[in-house]
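Q: What does the predicted 3D structure of Small-conductance mechanosensitive channel look like?
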Amino acid sequence: MFDLDKLVNDYLMPFGLKIVMAVVIWIVGGIVINVVARLVRSAMTRRAIDPTLVRYTESTLRIALRIALIISILSVCGIETTSFAALLAAAGIAIGAAWSGLLSNFASGIFLIVLRPFKTGDMISAGGVTGVVDEIGLFVTTLTTADNLRVYVGNTKVFGDNITVYDANAFRRVDLTAQLAHTVDVQDAIARLKARIAQIPNVMSTPAIDVVILEFNPAGPVLAVRPYCHNRDYWQVYFDTNRAIAEVGGMAQWPVPAPRQILMPPPGDLGKGMPIAPAGGAPAASPLPNAPAP
């Protein structure tokens, strides 16, 4: 005979209580996780820690606490968590083998956050891309290039290659050259260029502007023109300095540089074909055949 009371008392009531307890634990645990995550985020923000590291820490803490909460709920429901842990371990091995590249990017992202070779807002060159760092993500670093393109670079490429940080120092050098003709007074050209480039906005007075002879080529001397500026002003100073070189050359009426060659006959040919005046002052005979008489 079917015993309804036994079914309710022995099965439904305990199962219902477990469900209620699981729901309560899930709600209370979620509230506790949110409170703890907010406290950690606030504490790290007050210490002026990098925002990317704050997001990493908060996300990791939330995930870890959620996993612990789920395991606690399974224990309350009477589910053996040992087998569940073994299942998680097996799944972790399978996922690790399938996503080895992603996990490598993830590990590199952790190192980028911990070692902090650069931060959000820095202009860097890494992984073959140059741009401003928008975000250091779990798997990729997001850059915005000078032509306003957004590029996602895998953290493995960023961390595994040379990283150039343009904003790390207070200033950087702008490297340009000015080709002069042979007839231009080099010292006067250097003085004119220094005076004109010093008037360009955002060019630093310290270190001083470098204008020196770099090399000589068939067209004439080549000057190295090297002003200094902050990285954010680099391209403005670069183009203004090029314009200043052209203006100085035009105002000083420098000739157009062009290669010059002097043809010298071989030493053994000196005197050959040259007219030789005979004694007594008579006109020299022409070396050329059929030449008209003088």
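A (community wiki): The structure tokens above were generated from the sequence. Strands lie at 123-126, 129-136, 140-144, 150-154, 164-165, 172-173, 176-179, 210-217, 220-226, 228-229. The mean pLDDT is 82.
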